[in-house]
Amino acid sequence: MIVDTALREREVAGRPICVGMVGSGATGRAIALQLGTPAPGIRLVAIANRTPTNGERAFREAGITGWIRVGSAREAENAMARGLAILTEDPFVLTACGAIDVLVEVTGTVEPAAHVVIDAFNHGKHVVMVNAELDSMLGPILKVKADHAGVVVTNTDGDEPGVAMTLYRYLRSLGLRPVAAGNLKGMVDYYRTSDTQKVFAEKNG
Fold first, then answer.
1. Domains and CATH numbers, the chain
2. Which residue from 37, 42, 36 is spatially nearest to 17, judged by alpha carbons?
3. pTM for the full model?
4. How far is the C-alpha of 159 from the C-alpha of 183, rounded, in Å?
5. Tens digits of per-residue pLDDT, 177-205?
6. Is residue 91 within 8 Å of residue 120, measured between CB atoms?
């Protein structure tokens, strides 16, 4: 794929994409683990989390040992220039840090995440959202703001919206014309039982 080739070229050139991540819960730790492998041409260089011990855990589980806690964008840039990853409680340190190329938003919040994402746009950063709550409420507005800022806002492949779009793109590449796309998340229906499932199946043929 074109993306794979581009990432390999950046790896060979020693210019990996520098990723800052806001949030380090279960999903954030999984992303940190994947990027800490490391993936060719891309590096996790920063984590912002309101509970620093969770960020420390994400770095540790990802095998990233050279990190330092910082309190400002300038401190972050200086640390990264020395080859250190950064940890902070303040997500706006990441949005303002000139050494970070892409921000991954993984908090699952709405209002706090919206402020962070918009500030990232204002600092010329692309944003990958692993935040269906924010996307479902403000996604179209964020898209307009990203376009005005000349940056990209998107979902991650692996979360359901991103997987759906990957499947949609694949079908288009085969020459098919998808007419509907959706996401069925029965796994989070806490009221589902064998009886309610039977009624649903009968009603929907």
1. 2-156 (3.40.50.720), 162-203 (no CATH)
2. 42
3. 0.81
4. 11
5. 988 877 666 555 666 677 776 666 666 65
6. no
